[in-house]
Amino acid sequence: MSDPYLDQEVAGQFRIVEKIGKGGMGSVYKAEQPDMNRYVAIKILHSRYLSRSDLVSRFRREARAMSQLSHPNTARVFLYGQLDDGACYFVMEHLVGQNLAQIVRADGAMDPKRALRIMIQVCSALEEAHQAGIVHRDLKPENIFVTTQGGIRDFPKVLDFGLAKVTERQMRPGSMVLTQQGMVFGTPEFMSPEQAHGKTLDARSDIYSLGVILYELLTGKLPFDAKQPIEYIQLHVNATPIPLAKRRPEATFPPGLEDVVMAALAKKPEERYASAAAFAAALDSVLQAEAGTGGPISLPTPIPAVPLPNEAPHIEPLRGPEKPNTPWLMLGVGVVLAVAGVIALVVAFGRGS
Fold this sequence. Notes:
Largest sheet: 6 strands, antiparallel
Helix content: 25-40%
Distance between the termini: 26 Å
CATH topology of the largest domain: Transferase(Phosphotransferase), domain 1
Number of helices: 11
Shape: globular
Radius of gyration: 21 Å
Number of strands: 9
Number of domains: 2
CATH architecture of the largest domain: Orthogonal Bundle
Order of helices and strands: EEEEHEEEHHEEHHHHHHHH
Strand content: 15-25%
CATH superfamily of the largest domain: Transferase(Phosphotransferase) domain 1
Oligomer: single chain
């Protein structure tokens, strides 16, 4: 069966020539734009999902978030619209290269200096997003694409802001895990502890995810050993990450790098770097120290981050005195939620979401 979108004209200026990617919600196509003498990528949400308001909202949110950002390390979006069959689409820059997950699968652990240079650029892109009040919420190696731009190799592009700024659901325990068809809000292997708890998120949640990504680049593995998504969530909340040297004993890491990575992976947000810019500065200080220049390695000061623009600070409700039977009631509710969570995660997808 031929693809109905191949050779189709979009918005009177693009012609789809090839399918280059496919996911559960839609497909990505390569298209030519003759007037501009260039190729673009067109992401199309399957028309059969038009009745799913949550998926349409996620798709629009991704287009809107990316169109607001201009940082060179964020993939650019040029246009958003609907096709004749009603399917939503957006047009973005066409990238040639591999994502970080593909690079690690093919080559194994990355040279620390290369990993740091890539992640410093990623932090720079996230800093712009955070300053605009946008939290990514689904950072993972698959969403960081490495290409060559302007003759510069290892030029990362941050992709897929589909979960950005999920304010309408506030990431509560029930909605954090799944939607009507078991869609995961976030990827368990890269979730911050507060995201796993369903709390309101700020920039420091993204910094935790960046810490997990950097850990995987440096070691070829994740900070914890687990087989199921529910195990990763539990370990992010409760366990201490495995030291870099134990994960990769044959490697020599730059002095101070372990401290910087572990600071990004702190369980409490206030113990992490308060901004992506601060995390980037710490990574750069490791590079400078390795080169014999610069000062001491930058580590975070435990100070709460300032709330993002346009987002109200999260305030825990006041609690009254507990009744004698409250612990048993809470235990029962906890058991029910835990069972529901296990069932949901069995049917939900993880890293490929």
